[in-house]
Amino acid sequence: MSKPANKRKHIPAGKVRSYWQEHISEAIALGFNGRVIENIEDDYDELRLCWCCGSQGYQESAHIIPHSLGGQSTPSNFFLLCHECHVRSPDFAIAKPFIDYINEYAVSCTDLIVEVVTYGKRKLEALSFEDEKKMYALAEVFESRLMEACTEAFKMAGYHAASQSRSTKMAAFRYAIDKVIDEFDPSSSAEDIECQLEEDDKSAAISRAPSNSLPAR
Ligand SMILES: [Zn+2]
């Protein structure tokens, strides 16, 4: 009697996602590390995370064991990756090399946020020379201007096969942080910064106000 044919079948990303989200304990038992598990748990249709590098965008259904090497066309033999991580992933007849590869390069979304915050904090500390008062004043200005700078930075960022890589995102965040920090004169005092902050508030209030309510000059 011959073995039943292992037919090659496309498995949609949604099926792969729901399979692994319902079988988290299986993913843990296979040896996927905490960052990978976090990406699987955090992933949903609108967010579409790469389960390896944590980048957001188009997901490809990647074989854990390739079809050509006997891998089955079932959701349990697939993983959701961005194009870059998919292309780099190993093709091997057992699952371990794939699991090792994912674990080695896994970065969670949370890691990215922590890295951005740490980077910004370090730059602020360098600028304030441990003057606590100045540090707080700077942090306030920093927060109010960062969103604007991020919008500008992400206009400069591109996509790679419909995915935005982690390094691209990090480049955009660093650009925005550098821009906000570089606008400040390091010799300015906490009082100078507070003055600057008040001016910012005033100009924001003017730009928010409907044009017909502006006082006549
Ligand atoms: Zn990736």
Report what the structure shows.
The protein has 217 residues and is mainly alpha-helical. It folds into two domains: 13-105, DNA Binding (I), subunit A (Orthogonal Bundle); 109-200, no CATH class. Helices cover 56% and strands 6% of the residues. The strands form two sheets. Strands 1-4 form a two-stranded antiparallel sheet. It is elongated and about 75 Å long. The relative contact order is 0.11. The site of zinc ion has 8 residues, from helix 4. Keywords: Endonuclease, Hydrolase, Nuclease. This is HNH endonuclease.
> In terms of structural class, how would the helical and strand content be classed?
mainly alpha
Provide a count of the helices: 9
Integer count of domains? 2
Contiguous uncertain segments of 5+ residues: 213-217
Relevant terms:
single chain; 217 residues; mainly alpha; DNA Binding (I), subunit A; 2 domains; two-stranded antiparallel ribbon; 56% helix; disordered C terminus
Question: Can you summarize this structure?
Answer:
This protein is mainly alpha-helical.
